[in-house]
């Protein structure tokens, strides 16, 4: 198929967003190639030529906006939070096309771009605020990318993707009821505010109380630091020794960072016992690495190995999803980003930067601990996740439902492969269409975080959702 070029030049409002902690040379190279393809296809491009990363960049992009264009295109050159999306597109009266790139880095390296996850986060923010988005995923040289862009320049955007309309098996109502009753009165420890521009990390505590009977115990990041600094030398030493016995690779890391990690782990554990917490959601950056000098990923892993669900980036609804899945018998779960799509293999890669329980490792005896992939300080896990059948789930807000929530479900097989991205990665061949799931996540405005488990609790989740009047969206 060769759609050619539009009969008349199409105007494109183009912004390319990025964050300086990623591989900017690779991002700029892809942006150059993307602009060249648009020009070749006959587009007249308006907007900043370089990456938009700073507040000044964003203000300049805002000043350069035009209403009289044929296509509004945001290239997610690397991951960034959704602040630019909310500023640039809050009044957009047409669908926004988000373009994400494939990961160029070698196996085992960090995510150079995390572009797809950035598009997912943008999609959540725009749809949540009343807008529409569509996704284009792939590199400029791909035939499908060329065809999709050529069609978009003619006014034909990719379709929004919806799951198939199929009624699937429900678990026993009595078991779902017992699981839900078991959640009532439980407390989630929440540290700090959501990271800037992380719309999925916002939550409604009244909704949690009304729907699940869950309560929130909240402290500020600085109080968490004060608790960490107050940990006694003997408790810190005991935790450091215990952690190193369980994770011998800690012995090769900076001793000062391992010591700080032991303090964070001890403080979280003490807070869990003091406040009778059943789960913890932590604002894990930027303050932990920039002010305390440590990444808390491996501390969250330690608590997860003790059967306390932990979520990074202060994702409370993600934490509730973990609690519900574990109440239904899932065992230990993990909060992940969807960072890679291979449509030929019908495969997605699920990843986060290193807070998985070591029990979830492909080889729990070799759950290697290392430095954080972007911050380059300790301590974060660096190992592939377990193989076998997996379930993905996510509770997220939905103002159109009586409960105020909806539930996303998908499933597949986690395949054996080397750890693709530094941190914790699972390569999952989906039971449904990987293309449709990823495009549905973005165009449907779902969060960039889902929860993955290695026990199929979907029948129980469906039954629990029915009892709470939560619609189930399932691929």
Task: Give keywords.
475 residues; alpha/beta; Rossmann fold; L-fucose Isomerase, Chain A, domain 3; 2 domains; six-stranded antiparallel β-barrel; five-stranded parallel sheet; 15 helices; 18 strands; 35% helix; 21% strand; globular; disordered N terminus
Secondary structure layout:
Blueprint: E1 10-17, H1 24-40, E2 43-46, H2 55-63, E3 71-76, H3 83-88, E4 96-100, H4 115-128, E5 133-137, H5 143-153, H6 173-183, E6 187-191, H7 205-212, E7 215-219, H8 221-229, H9 233-246, H10 255-274, E8 279-282, H11 287-292, H12 297-305, E9 310-311, H13 316-327, E10 334-342, E11 347-352, E12 369-371, E13 378-381, E14 388-397, E15 405-415, E16 424-430, H14 434-443, E17 449-453, H15 458-467, E18 472-474
Parallel strand pairs: 1-2, 1-3, 3-4, 4-5, 6-7, 6-8, 8-9, 15-18
Antiparallel strand pairs: 10-11, 10-17, 11-16, 12-13, 14-15, 14-17, 15-16
Helix pairs in contact: 4-14, 6-15, 8-10, 9-10, 10-12
Describe the overall structure.
This protein is α/β, with parallel strands linked by helices. The chain has two domains: 10-153, Rossmann fold (3-Layer(aba) Sandwich); 173-474, L-fucose Isomerase, Chain A, domain 3 (Alpha-Beta Barrel), CATH 3.20.14. The protein contains 15 helices and 18 strands. The strands form four sheets. It has a six-stranded antiparallel barrel with strand order 10-11-16-15-14-17. Helix 9 (233-246) crosses helix 10 (255-274). It is globular.
Sheet having the most strands? 6 strands, antiparallel, barrel
Fraction of residues in helices? Answer: 25-40%
Mean pLDDT: 96
Strand order of the largest sheet: 10-11-16-15-14-17
